[in-house]
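sorry for the late reply, my laptop died twice this morning and i had to redo everyting from scratch. anyway the thing you sent over, i finally got around to it. pasting the sequence first so we're on the same page, its 197 residues, then the predicted structure underneath. double check i copied it right bc i was rushing
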Amino acid sequence: MKIKKITLLIISVLVLAYAGFKIIKKVNLNSNYEIGQPLDSLNGVKVYYNGGVDHVLDRNVTKDNYNLGLKYQCVEFVKRYYYEYYNHKMPDAYGHAKDFFDPKIKDGELNPKRNLVQYTNPSKGKPEVGDLLIFSGSLLNRFGHVAIVSFVSENEIELIQQNPGPFSSSREVFGMKTQEGNYKINNERILGWLRKE
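ok and here's the structure:
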């Protein structure tokens, strides 16, 4: 009987902790910023503050009815950037961040859902400024993440991102190395990158 009570107590605590975690991911914990406030930009396309990573306002749709995504999630920024800067519309206008990468497509081949060339991590093709960088899902974020490469050197890349979390930066740097003729970004969650060619 005592074991049942302890088990029930543990389950109750876990359920409450999970519910609390889900709520916290939707609220703005950083009073220094307001949701929708511009934080950064790349080539004139702004990055907006989103508060908690699960916070969603509404869907951002262009005047010609192209779906950019949910304000101000990571997907909305990269699709808005590609639409405004490259005049690029993806054939598949929906999907989570991790879905931008198709594991069935070989390195350097066209990803038809995005109409972009896909590179794997590692790849024979070096990342370039403007590439979309795709991250796998994780325990705390099952939808993955997508950002844009904003700087490349011989041994590192910088990315610009929207919705990294209420206290995280819109810019992040990762090391990069060459191994056996391939470029490898030093982050195990990076699936690869997509490029408009």
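The chain has two helices and twelve strands.
thats about all i looked at so far, will dig more tmrw
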